Amino acid sequence: MLSISLCMIVKDEEEVLAGCLESVQNLVDEIIIVDTGSTDKTKEIASRFTSSIYDFEWVNDFSAARNYSFSKATCDYIMWLDADDVLLPKDQAALRDLWSGIGDDVDVVSMYYHTALDEAGRPLFLYRRNRIVKRSKNFRWRGAVHEYLEFGGNIVASEIAVTHRKSEKSHILSDRNLRIYESYVASGRELTPRDMFYYANELKDHGKLEKAKSYYMDFLRSKQGWVEDNIRACQYLADCCKATGDTEAYRMHLFRSFQYDRPRPEFCCFIGDFFTEEENYDAGVYWYRQALDYEGKELPGFSVPAYTTWYPYVQLTLCYSRLGLMEQAKAAHSQAVTYHPDHPSVQHNAAFFEKLRL
User: Fold this and answer.
1) Residues 6+ apart with CB under 8 A from 168
2) pLDDT (tens digit, 9 = 90+) per residue, 157-167?
3) For 97-147, what is each residue's pLDDT tens digit?
4) Theoretical Cys-Cys bridge with 46: which of 33, 72, 120, 263, CB 3.0 to 4.6 Å?
């Protein structure tokens, strides 16, 4: 069977590292840990799983650290994870099954990334990442911050998911990336379009909304962004405008996203919400129905399953009931129940229809 090296970069991950490594130790043939300056028990924990632990001086460049970790791999393929990632038992089994039949003509295996789960373990936000790559292809990481892996060739899009497990420190907003970008600007370094987008994200997350809007606009004007980043920039621009009370600009940037691809379901829901708040329920119905055009389909880029499942059905229940179309409202509610029966809005509507004896 083809062999796998797990390559990770870590710093002060004593809270989560053991859980990560325990979830994959029986799936890989070697574990490479590159430590970028831990002061806790990270390396001590790592030593329980591997002797291949290397120190790497942090130079404000994630790609440099990841490429160094890849350089230490010796197996046929390289898998990468962050310390707060795990493979749940079903995904461990799925990877084992996939790998038992994998051929050496495969260059890349992509997996879903579940960055948040609800109380029932359902993903709230997911997208694909290229998790396993053929070592002989020498794929490289690019970008000092929010790095990405260059790839190509024969790609297997698997159904396996890597699940992000939030740690206590992950709830604390770090200004590390913001400081890196600000140092670039202060030094006169020219930001790439990708840098502009992620710098704007950092500014937005830290409440610097006007400055964030400026960088989002610069990014979109560059016309050099990845289509998914263009769409997200429109969403985050809209968020900034809504937060600063600029309703018209909020609406404009939602519609602006349509120039990059067909309307994505979350934008359809946002626009539906806008019309619903204005009591234009016919328009609300139209947009929630547009969101459901993706129901049961895999989305390109980033996905929030709520916007193709229970949420538009809950909103359709509201709109139809306000329009006096109670049969359509009950039918929409019944669909919402199949997706999220324990959601407070769904339960509220269930009580509403029970009271009406519908």
Assistant:
1) 15
2) 999 999 998 76
3) 999 999 999 999 999 999 999 888 889 999 999 999 999 999 999 999 999
4) 33
Angstrom distance (rounded) from CA 272 to CA 294: 15
The per-residue pLDDT for 3 is 98
Read off the pLDDT band of 357 (50, 70, 90): confident
- Identify the CATH class of 173-261: mainly alpha
CA 163, CA 87: separation in Å to the nearest integer? 6
DSSP assignments along 153-170, one per residue: SSEEEEEEEEEE---TGG
Burial of 253 (0-12, 13-18, 19+ CB in 10 A): buried
Q: How far apart are CA 271 and CA 23, in angstroms?
A: 41
- How high is the pLDDT of residue 167? 66
Q: Give the right CATH number for 262-358 from 1.10.3210.10, 1.25.40.20, 1.25.40.10, 3.40.50.170.
A: 1.25.40.10
Looking at every residue in the chain, the average pLDDT score rounds to 95
Per DSSP, the residues of 324-337 read T-HHHHHHHHHHHH
**253-258: which pairs have CB atoms within 8 A and are 24 or more residues apart?**
257/230, 257/231
Q: Which CATH class is domain 4-170?
A: alpha beta
Q: CA–CA separation, 21 vs 323, rounded Å?
A: 54
Please say whether the beta carbons of 140 and 159 come within 8 A: no
What's the pLDDT score for residue 301? 86
